[in-house]
Amino acid sequence: MMYTLVQCVPCQRAKHLLAVNYADAAAYFLELVGHEDWQRQLQVDLHRMTGQITFPYIFICGRHIGGES
Predict the structure, then answer these.
(1) How far is residue 13's CA from residue 47's CA, in Å, rounded to a whole number?
(2) How far is CA 26 from CA 5, 8, 59, in A?
(3) In this structure, are residues 4 and 33 in contact, taking their beta carbons and an 8 Å threshold?
(4) Whole-number Å distance between alpha carbons of 31 and 24
(5) Those residues with Cβ within 8 angstroms of residue 43's Cβ, 6 or more apart along the chain or in another chain
(6) Beta strands 2-5 and 29-32: pairing type?
(7) How far apart are CA 64 and CA 46, in angstroms?
(8) Is 6 in contact with 65 (CB distance < 8 Å)?
(9) Which of 62, 33, 34, 57 minimizes the C-alpha distance to 45?
(10) Among 19, 39, 46, 63, which is 20 to 30 Å from 53 by CA?
(11) Where are the domains of the chain?
(12) Residue 19, phi then psi, degrees to nearest 5
């Protein structure tokens, strides 16, 4: 599961790396569009869960593995 933003360059790079290196894996994305208040709250919640402050947030089997870097 990857939480991304529409116009986020690191998010696009992470999606590309996933597609190239793990083409056979099922991937699910929650791409946030508009709704700035909801987006801000989700980022606060994800930061609280992971300690990470920027998008994308990447989880594999429910475990946070980091972001694009």
Answers:
(1) 20
(2) 20, 22, 13
(3) no
(4) 21
(5) 55
(6) parallel
(7) 10
(8) no
(9) 57
(10) 19
(11) 27-61
(12) -65, -40
